[in-house]
Amino acid sequence: MTAKKRTTGTSTSSKKTAETAVETLFFSRDESWMRFNQRVLEEAQDESNPLLERVKFLAITASNLDEFVEIRVAGFLQRIEDGYNLAQPPDEGGFTPQERLDGLMVMIHKFVEAQYKCLNEQLLPALQTARIRILRWSQLSDVARKHALDFYENEVDPLLTPVTIDPSHPFPRVLNKALCIGLLLRHKRRGVKAPTALGVVTVPRALPRLVPLKCSEGDCDFILLHELVESQVERMFRGYEVLSRSAFRVTRNSNLYMQEEESRSVLESVRAELHNRRKGDAVRMEIESTATEEIIERLRVNFELEPEQVFRTDGPVNLSRLMNLYSEVKRPQLKYPAFVAKEFKLSAKCTDIFDELRKRDVMLHHPFDSYKTVEEFIEAGAKDPNVISMKQTLYRTSKDSPIFTALTEAGQSKEVTVVVELMARFDEDSNIRWARELEDAGVGVFHGIFGLKTHCKLSLLVRRDPDGVVRRYAHLGTGNYNPVTARFYTDISVLTSKPELTEEVQKVFNYLTAETEAESYKPLLVAPLTLADGLVALIEREAAHAKAGRPASIIAKMNGLLDRRTVEALYAASNAGVEIDLIVRGMCSLRPGVKGVSEKIRVRSIVGRFLEHSRIFSFSNGGKEEVYCGSADWMPRNLIERCEVVFPVVQPDLHKRLREEILAAYLADNTKARVLQPGGEYERAPKDGIHFSAQDYLMRIAEGADEKVPEAVTHEKPAVH
């Protein structure tokens, strides 16, 4: 997909020449996202992190950028090609889609330069010092070459298909993000005046990108797979002189475009669109900076890309594959120290989890608390003959998930309903497969409400207890039912048998399977029905308390804050005197510290060992504090375009833990926290002589430490503009 340059139709006088009030108050979503990925890159640059963890962070920035290009950049290009650049007025900041895209591409190019600077100037030298080397073919010893060639002959060569581009051999269809080698060739028999031809070899996806050569206690040597393939291209193109060669990679548009009226079923529609995604229009080409201009230009023209959509990389074109280095090198001293999550234990007189939940709610903070408890809750539902029915939402899970196994086994003997979200981005293929397997096992599989992603995290068990009473037991969470990611995503789980919660959870399932709307879901907030209005009402209630001189404050932790109406409510609350602390890991359109608008709002982001994924919202409520958790960020997609559930945590000890241990720790962090400044930059939180990491503290607490959160560093304030 190429960005076709057009005249925007906007006169110079009408274009934005200075900051407008709107642009002053709302940061661009995409620029905010780029700043988030910059914070991840800073972890790769941070020498206080273990070396292989830094490599891992760099790989994560590349994977993040891939998705951003596939979705956000592709979206801009799609709108431009569809004519929106001329047909639609400029956005709230006064920019056309083309102008937004132009600015974004400049940021992406600078970011890619910073990625490779980190790799070449920091990580590779540090790896070499640690006797971990990524070698070129020319650097290999005779022994290493023999080992590499043996691997090539046995594992690589049988999978290769060299193609020379000519009238009878058209350019091959290059799959999304497939690593390829481009070659400039000249036929030997036709002499030096013969025209050059383009050759292409696709590097097999099934093979590791880093081929181990020698890995012992002392040394670990690797060669990149494409480097190995490049070393053998003369054998593949016999009869040709190889004038130049270079690895390249094309990223394609991965947005799903679904038409409800043309769909026989959601499952069939998503399956068809997944096939199309692999062939979507090109939006970016990465190619090694050593490539000749002729190869670059031929490839660029073939993929119909503008020059700014070509990224010359000073190193391997797919940095996300460096993640293999982390798994291949067995050096514990170069990684974070091992952490074992705290195991949940039943109370002294409780015989099982159901007995426990009849007496009290259980709250888990993953990964500090083991996710096994959630798995065991669902497994207990499958195995316990007294459990009559099970209902479950699944957004993302993992291969060989105990939860998936439990649901399929339960389908043999009891009523089981599973709402599977087929459009969980980049997990659609596996979700289709699981949906089919669940159906085959006798499970009732539903796909939620068309046009709305089912993102809520709910499990509901109905059980006839020993006293003869039929009760509901529920799990409500902030994270996916994925035991793999639960080891490095922070999330909240609440297990309960409280009727005021479990009855409403059942209403949510009725909504998901039959689209029947209840008059109320209180105390739950449910998107897209009650959450958006309910959230604004909670913020406005704090403003009313502040005006009346009662305690008024908001502490909200989430992944993203972009919803315009919610941001405006926060601005109004700030003006009313509400103290607001926001812990926003990723995108944030709210601008703190603006005089007369957001003077009482502080925004911080924490990027560390674990991915901050929990959503926790605390409201002072005039002294009667309320705390909520849930699956929804404060973004339009969560409040309007998805089925989400936010739930209160009312049990006093759990309420206290959320506020005084978990949220307080994140507000006190001055090691991994960055504070959003009024101009959009993020700065490290001031240390004031105290070094405190929330995640390290929470690990120590899980291991049994008796420690309190320091109070001295909990309220940094940005400069007011």
UniProtKB/TrEMBL annotation:
Catalytic site positions: H455
Q: Which reaction does it catalyse?
A: [phosphate](n) + ATP = [phosphate](n+1) + ADP
Gene3D superfamilies noted in UniProt? Endonuclease Chain A, Polyphosphate kinase middle domain, Polyphosphate kinase N-terminal domain
A GO BP entry is: polyphosphate biosynthetic process
Superkingdom assignment:
Bacteria
E.C. no: 2.7.4.1
Q: Where does Mg(2+) bind?
A: R396, R425
EC class name: transferase
User: Residue ranges of the Polyphosphate kinase N-terminal domain?
Assistant: 26-134
Entry keyword set: ATP-binding, Kinase, Magnesium, Metal-binding, Nucleotide-binding, Phosphoprotein, Transferase
Q: Where is the Polyphosphate kinase C-terminal domain?
A: 352-516, 524-687
Q: Which residues form the Polyphosphate kinase middle domain?
A: 146-325
Cofactor requirement: Mg(2+)
Tell me how the protein is altered or processed after translation: An intermediate of this reaction is the autophosphorylated ppk in which a phosphate is covalently linked to a histidine residue through a N-P bond.
> For ATP, which residues are the binding ones?
N64, Y489, R585, H613
Which Pfam families does its entry note?
A: PP_kinase, PP_kinase_C, PP_kinase_C_1, PP_kinase_N
InterPro entries from the UniProt entry: PP_kinase, PP_kinase_C_1, PP_kinase_middle, PP_kinase_middle_dom_sf, PPK_C_dom2, PPK_N_dom, PPK_N_dom_sf
Xref: NCBIfam families: poly_P_kin (TIGR03705), PRK05443.1-1 (NF003917), PRK05443.1-2 (NF003918), PRK05443.2-2 (NF003921)
Entry similarity comment: Belongs to the polyphosphate kinase 1 (PPK1) family.
Q: What does this protein do?
A: Catalyzes the reversible transfer of the terminal phosphate of ATP to form a long-chain polyphosphate (polyP).
According to UniProt, the name of this protein is Polyphosphate kinase
What species was this sequence derived from?
Tunturiibacter psychrotolerans
Give the encoding gene's name.
ppk1
